[in-house]
Protein backbone atom coordinates (compact mmCIF):
# COMPACT_ATOMS: atom_id res chain seq x y z
CA UNK A 1 0.00 0.00 0.00
CA UNK A 2 2.85 2.43 0.82
CA UNK A 3 4.51 1.87 -2.57
CA UNK A 4 1.16 2.18 -4.37
CA UNK A 5 0.34 5.43 -2.56
CA UNK A 6 3.71 6.93 -3.45
CA UNK A 7 3.34 5.96 -7.11
CA UNK A 8 -0.05 7.73 -7.21
CA UNK A 9 1.44 10.82 -5.52
CA UNK A 10 4.31 10.80 -8.01
CA UNK A 11 1.88 10.50 -10.93
CA UNK A 12 -0.24 13.41 -9.65
CA UNK A 13 2.84 15.55 -9.02
CA UNK A 14 4.21 14.97 -12.54
CA UNK A 15 0.89 15.67 -14.25
CA UNK A 16 -0.52 18.52 -12.14
CA UNK A 17 0.33 21.08 -14.84
CA UNK A 18 -0.61 19.00 -17.88
CA UNK A 19 -4.39 19.16 -17.59
CA UNK A 20 -4.65 15.35 -17.49
CA UNK A 21 -5.67 15.05 -13.83
CA UNK A 22 -9.37 15.97 -14.31
CA UNK A 23 -9.60 13.21 -16.95
CA UNK A 24 -7.82 10.82 -14.57
CA UNK A 25 -10.34 11.70 -11.85
CA UNK A 26 -13.33 11.19 -14.19
CA UNK A 27 -12.06 7.82 -15.38
CA UNK A 28 -11.49 6.64 -11.80
CA UNK A 29 -14.91 7.92 -10.75
CA UNK A 30 -16.66 6.21 -13.70
CA UNK A 31 -14.79 2.98 -13.04
CA UNK A 32 -15.85 3.08 -9.38
CA UNK A 33 -19.49 3.44 -10.43
CA UNK A 34 -19.14 0.49 -12.82
CA UNK A 35 -17.51 -1.63 -10.09
CA UNK A 36 -20.32 -0.72 -7.67
CA UNK A 37 -22.91 -1.87 -10.22
CA UNK A 38 -21.03 -5.11 -10.83
CA UNK A 39 -20.71 -5.73 -7.10
CA UNK A 40 -24.45 -5.19 -6.67
CA UNK A 41 -25.29 -7.62 -9.49
CA UNK A 42 -22.97 -10.32 -8.18
CA UNK A 43 -24.32 -9.85 -4.64
CA UNK A 44 -27.86 -10.38 -5.94
CA UNK A 45 -26.53 -13.47 -7.72
CA UNK A 46 -25.19 -14.85 -4.41
CA UNK A 47 -28.56 -14.29 -2.72
CA UNK A 48 -30.38 -15.90 -5.65
CA UNK A 49 -28.19 -19.02 -5.58
CA UNK A 50 -28.62 -19.38 -1.82
CA UNK A 51 -32.41 -19.12 -2.19
CA UNK A 52 -32.33 -21.72 -4.98
CA UNK A 53 -30.29 -24.03 -2.79
CA UNK A 54 -32.74 -23.64 0.12
CA UNK A 55 -35.72 -24.33 -2.15
CA UNK A 56 -34.25 -27.44 -3.73
CA UNK A 57 -33.01 -28.80 -0.40
CA UNK A 58 -36.50 -28.61 1.13
CA UNK A 59 -38.87 -29.36 -1.75
CA UNK A 60 -39.21 -32.35 -4.07
CA UNK A 61 -39.45 -30.53 -7.38
CA UNK A 62 -40.01 -32.66 -10.48
CA UNK A 63 -39.64 -29.90 -13.07
CA UNK A 64 -38.98 -26.20 -13.26
CA UNK A 65 -40.41 -23.51 -15.53
CA UNK A 66 -39.16 -19.91 -15.47
CA UNK A 67 -40.83 -17.94 -18.25
CA UNK A 68 -39.93 -19.56 -21.58
CA UNK A 69 -37.29 -21.76 -19.93
CA UNK A 70 -38.39 -25.27 -18.96
CA UNK A 71 -36.12 -27.71 -17.10
CA UNK A 72 -37.39 -31.28 -16.87
CA UNK A 73 -34.35 -32.77 -15.11
CA UNK A 74 -34.04 -30.38 -12.15
CA UNK A 75 -31.11 -32.31 -10.65
CA UNK A 76 -28.88 -30.10 -12.79
CA UNK A 77 -29.82 -27.08 -10.65
CA UNK A 78 -28.30 -28.20 -7.30
CA UNK A 79 -25.36 -29.69 -9.21
CA UNK A 80 -24.26 -26.47 -10.91
CA UNK A 81 -25.03 -24.04 -8.04
CA UNK A 82 -21.68 -24.57 -6.19
CA UNK A 83 -19.71 -23.84 -9.38
CA UNK A 84 -21.71 -20.67 -10.01
CA UNK A 85 -21.44 -19.55 -6.38
CA UNK A 86 -17.66 -20.09 -6.29
CA UNK A 87 -17.26 -18.16 -9.54
CA UNK A 88 -19.36 -15.26 -8.20
CA UNK A 89 -17.49 -15.15 -4.87
CA UNK A 90 -14.17 -15.03 -6.73
CA UNK A 91 -15.46 -12.16 -8.87
CA UNK A 92 -16.70 -10.31 -5.78
CA UNK A 93 -13.27 -10.56 -4.17
CA UNK A 94 -11.52 -9.24 -7.32
CA UNK A 95 -14.09 -6.42 -7.66
CA UNK A 96 -13.65 -5.46 -4.00
CA UNK A 97 -9.86 -5.39 -4.43
CA UNK A 98 -10.15 -3.17 -7.50
CA UNK A 99 -12.59 -0.90 -5.68
CA UNK A 100 -10.11 -0.40 -2.86
CA UNK A 101 -7.44 0.59 -5.38
CA UNK A 102 -9.70 3.08 -7.18
CA UNK A 103 -11.04 4.58 -3.93
CA UNK A 104 -7.47 4.90 -2.67
CA UNK A 105 -6.46 6.77 -5.85
CA UNK A 106 -9.46 9.11 -5.50
CA UNK A 107 -8.66 9.61 -1.81
CA UNK A 108 -5.07 10.67 -2.52
CA UNK A 109 -6.19 12.77 -5.49
CA UNK A 110 -8.66 14.62 -3.24
CA UNK A 111 -5.90 15.49 -0.77
CA UNK A 112 -4.01 17.38 -3.46
CA UNK A 113 -6.81 18.62 -5.74
CA UNK A 114 -9.04 19.94 -2.94
CA UNK A 115 -6.00 21.12 -0.96
CA UNK A 116 -6.88 19.18 2.18
CA UNK A 117 -4.44 19.06 5.04
CA UNK A 118 -2.76 15.68 5.31
CA UNK A 119 0.38 14.03 6.62
CA UNK A 120 2.41 11.00 5.60
CA UNK A 121 0.43 9.03 8.18
CA UNK A 122 -2.81 9.83 6.34
CA UNK A 123 -1.33 8.36 3.17
CA UNK A 124 -0.44 5.11 4.94
CA UNK A 125 -4.02 4.64 6.16
CA UNK A 126 -7.17 3.71 4.25
CA UNK A 127 -9.37 6.26 6.02
CA UNK A 128 -11.59 8.43 3.89
CA UNK A 129 -11.66 12.14 4.59
CA UNK A 130 -15.15 13.68 4.91
CA UNK A 131 -14.59 15.67 1.71
CA UNK A 132 -13.61 12.52 -0.16
CA UNK A 133 -16.60 10.57 1.13
CA UNK A 134 -18.98 13.31 -0.03
CA UNK A 135 -18.12 12.96 -3.73
CA UNK A 136 -17.75 9.18 -3.85
CA UNK A 137 -20.73 7.19 -5.23
CA UNK A 138 -22.90 5.83 -2.42
CA UNK A 139 -22.39 2.25 -1.30
CA UNK A 140 -23.66 0.63 1.87
CA UNK A 141 -20.25 -0.88 2.65
CA UNK A 142 -18.51 2.52 2.46
CA UNK A 143 -21.01 4.12 4.81
CA UNK A 144 -20.79 1.26 7.33
CA UNK A 145 -16.98 1.30 7.22
CA UNK A 146 -17.02 5.05 7.97
CA UNK A 147 -18.35 4.20 11.44
CA UNK A 148 -15.05 2.50 12.22
CA UNK A 149 -12.74 5.10 10.72
CA UNK A 150 -12.56 7.48 13.66
CA UNK A 151 -10.57 6.24 16.62
CA UNK A 152 -13.23 5.33 19.23
CA UNK A 153 -12.80 4.76 22.94
CA UNK A 154 -12.90 1.28 24.47
CA UNK A 155 -16.62 1.44 25.32
CA UNK A 156 -17.60 2.60 21.83
CA UNK A 157 -15.38 -0.09 20.29
CA UNK A 158 -17.08 -2.78 22.38
CA UNK A 159 -20.59 -1.61 21.52
CA UNK A 160 -19.64 -1.25 17.85
CA UNK A 161 -18.18 -4.76 17.77
CA UNK A 162 -21.36 -6.27 19.27
CA UNK A 163 -23.60 -4.37 16.84
CA UNK A 164 -21.49 -5.11 13.76
CA UNK A 165 -20.83 -8.77 14.61
CA UNK A 166 -24.04 -9.94 12.82
CA UNK A 167 -22.85 -8.15 9.66
CA UNK A 168 -19.51 -9.97 9.89
CA UNK A 169 -21.33 -13.29 10.28
CA UNK A 170 -23.57 -12.49 7.31
CA UNK A 171 -20.39 -12.04 5.26
CA UNK A 172 -19.46 -15.65 6.07
CA UNK A 173 -22.88 -17.07 5.09
CA UNK A 174 -22.03 -17.56 1.38
CA UNK A 175 -19.09 -19.80 2.36
CA UNK A 176 -21.33 -21.75 4.74
CA UNK A 177 -23.86 -22.34 1.96
CA UNK A 178 -21.06 -23.20 -0.48
CA UNK A 179 -20.01 -25.96 1.92
CA UNK A 180 -23.64 -27.17 2.14
CA UNK A 181 -23.93 -27.17 -1.66
CA UNK A 182 -20.73 -29.17 -2.05
CA UNK A 183 -21.94 -31.67 0.54
CA UNK A 184 -25.20 -32.07 -1.37
CA UNK A 185 -23.38 -32.66 -4.65
CA UNK A 186 -20.95 -35.11 -3.02
CA UNK A 187 -23.66 -37.09 -1.17
CA UNK A 188 -26.33 -37.18 -3.88
CA UNK A 189 -24.80 -36.52 -7.30
CA UNK A 190 -21.10 -37.42 -7.07
CA UNK A 191 -21.69 -40.71 -8.92
CA UNK A 192 -22.91 -38.74 -11.94
CA UNK A 193 -20.37 -37.28 -14.36
CA UNK A 194 -21.80 -33.78 -14.02
CA UNK A 195 -21.82 -34.06 -10.24
CA UNK A 196 -18.21 -35.26 -10.19
CA UNK A 197 -17.01 -32.41 -12.41
CA UNK A 198 -19.08 -29.83 -10.53
CA UNK A 199 -17.62 -30.87 -7.18
CA UNK A 200 -13.99 -30.71 -8.28
CA UNK A 201 -14.36 -27.60 -10.44
CA UNK A 202 -15.87 -25.82 -7.42
CA UNK A 203 -12.97 -26.95 -5.22
CA UNK A 204 -10.49 -25.89 -7.92
CA UNK A 205 -12.02 -22.40 -8.28
CA UNK A 206 -12.08 -21.96 -4.50
CA UNK A 207 -8.40 -22.94 -4.20
CA UNK A 208 -7.52 -20.50 -7.00
CA UNK A 209 -9.34 -17.77 -5.07
CA UNK A 210 -7.41 -18.58 -1.87
CA UNK A 211 -4.14 -18.76 -3.83
CA UNK A 212 -4.86 -15.38 -5.45
CA UNK A 213 -5.71 -13.83 -2.08
CA UNK A 214 -2.51 -15.10 -0.42
CA UNK A 215 -0.13 -14.37 -3.31
CA UNK A 216 -1.43 -10.82 -3.83
CA UNK A 217 -1.09 -10.09 -0.09
CA UNK A 218 2.47 -11.47 -0.03
CA UNK A 219 3.40 -9.63 -3.24
CA UNK A 220 2.08 -6.28 -1.98
CA UNK A 221 3.83 -6.72 1.35
CA UNK A 222 7.14 -7.55 -0.38
CA UNK A 223 6.85 -4.54 -2.71
CA UNK A 224 6.20 -2.26 0.27
CA UNK A 225 9.24 -3.63 2.13
CA UNK A 226 11.47 -3.27 -0.95
CA UNK A 227 10.21 0.30 -1.47
CA UNK A 228 10.96 1.22 2.17
CA UNK A 229 14.45 -0.33 1.95
CA UNK A 230 15.25 1.50 -1.29
CA UNK A 231 14.24 4.83 0.26
CA UNK A 232 16.35 4.23 3.35
CA UNK A 233 19.56 3.86 1.34
Task: Describe the secondary structure blueprint for this structure.
Blueprint: H1 2-15, H2 21-58, E1 64-66, E2 69-71, H3 76-113, H4 120-124, H5 130-135, H6 140-146, H7 154-189, H8 193-232
Antiparallel strand pairs: 1-2
Structure explained in plain terms:
With 233 residues, the protein is mainly alpha-helical. It has one domain (2-232). 79% of the residues lie in helices and 3% in strands. The protein has eight helices and two strands, in the order H-H-E-E-H-H-H-H-H-H. The protein has a two-stranded antiparallel ribbon. Helix 7 (154-189) runs antiparallel to helix 8. The longest helix has 40 residues, at 193-232. It is elongated and about 65 Å long. The two termini are 20 Å apart. The model has no long low-confidence stretch (mean pLDDT 78).
Instruction: Assign the structural class, choosing from mainly alpha, mainly beta, alpha/beta, alpha+beta, or little secondary structure.
Output: mainly alpha
Structure summary, number of beta strands? 2
For the termini, the CA-CA separation is: 20 Å
Helix content: over 70%
Count of folded domains: 1
Summarize the structure.
With 233 residues, this protein is mainly α. The protein has eight helices and two strands; from the N terminus they run H-H-E-E-H-H-H-H-H-H.
Key words describing this protein structure:
mainly alpha, single chain, 2 strands, two-stranded antiparallel ribbon, 233 residues, 8 helices, elongated
